[in-house]
Amino acid sequence: MSRALPSLVLVPGAWHKPAHLQPLVDELDGIDTRTVALPSTGDDPAHLGDMYGDAAAIAEAVAAVDGPTVVLAHSYGGIPTTQALSGARNVRRIIYLAAFVLDVGESLFSVSGGSPMGWAAAHRQCGGDGYLDVPDPVEVFYGDVDAVTADRAVRQLGYLSYAAGRQVLTEAAWKTVPSTYIICEEDRALPPAVQERFARHADEVHRMGTSHSPFLSRPADLAGLVADVLAQV
Q1: 7-228: what fold?
Q2: Is the pTM of the predicted complex or chain greater than 0.70?
Q3: For 196-223, what is each residue's pLDDT tens digit?
Q4: What is the dihedral of CA 198, 103, 97, 194, to 10 degrees?
């Protein structure tokens, strides 16, 4: 009799919501899969959470799983995942998908030259941090996604809190939790050369010839790769 696979918790990237990862979930048939909604992303720019709130949401989702768990984090999602999981006893592996893998004391902005990425627009607010959006998300995120799917994905995007970009890690889970890195070789959001640098923290590296969002452009291929990783845990 085959061994049951671990549960899988998905963490979307900045601006993205669980709905964006649904095509991947649909391909992960038979695998217990849950997706976290990050508080730092939302439709109301005046009421957004932050990176530490994201980390708390991830920790809560993992704690709700009864049994071995793997966490897949995409893009910015790698930051709060790394913050959240140092003490998570049931997490067997982290899969970083074209993700930021930072160390203690680093933040999204600190590894991006001290400010938001050049393709993101910052909107500062009096009395608060403000928010970020992306003027051309198709170019940045969805270069190999079909037009209908890309249009739907753009309409589902939210705002990202500015605070989430400046808050620094106080924990680094990749130092104690085994990890896999998936490099997206045609990525226009997080350059492959930068991903290669982050991948040095992982003990296993895979590559996909995709843009930043293989969960939309090649969900079946990504699901197959993820299932293979789960089977080895």
Answers
A1: Rossmann fold (3.40.50)
A2: yes
A3: 999 999 999 999 999 999 999 999 999 9
A4: -30
